[in-house]
Amino acid sequence: MKIKKTGKKIFGAELTSQEKKALDIEIERQLAEFDRNHTKEIDALILLALHDTFGFGEKRLRRFYDIFDESVNELIKRYELEDSDKIWISEQTLKDYGIDLDLWERERRKNR
């Protein structure tokens, strides 16, 4: 690592490619840990929305919860991979069905 400074003040650093790669891996590991720590809260929000909006009962919520948990775990594993530039398969599958989450997000931001 090459430290950048002016006089006695440090204002940055230039990382080698190996250091950048190690930093990226650590960031992705921490994202995965963050996801694990907040999964229960996110699950509760989703289950409550399915119950209140669509009338899902306990049996249906449990089926969804079990399937969704598997998908979340696969997503977390993706963060831990070194090659995280691959598109997440669920997003692409939805696009194949004509559901574009990027478009929905742009529309939601426009309507705020």
Residue-averaged pLDDT, rounded?
Answer: 84
For the report, how would you describe the main beta sheet? 2 strands, antiparallel
List low-pLDDT spans: none
Distance between the termini: 44 Å
Strand content: 5-15%
Helix fraction, binned, reads over 70%
The assigned structural class equals: mainly alpha
* Rg estimate, integer Å: 20 Å
How many structural units, i.e. domains? 1
Shape: elongated
Please count the helical segments.
4
How many DSSP E strands?
A: 2
In the sheet with the most strands, the strands line up as 1-2
N-to-C SSE string, H for helix and E for strand: EEHHHH
In words, what does this structure look like?
The radius of gyration is 20 Å and the shape is elongated. It has 112 residues and is mainly alpha-helical. It has helices at 17-54, 58-80, 89-96, 101-110; strands spanning 2-6, 9-14. It has one domain (2-110). The N and C termini lie far apart (44 Å). It has four helices and two strands. The mean pLDDT is 84. It has a two-stranded antiparallel ribbon. A hairpin with a 2-residue loop joins strand 1 and strand 2.
What can be said about this structure in brief?
The protein has 112 residues and is mostly helical. The chain is built from 4 helices and 2 strands; from the N terminus they run ββαααα. It has helices spanning 17-54, 58-80, 89-96, 101-110; strands at 2-6, 9-14.
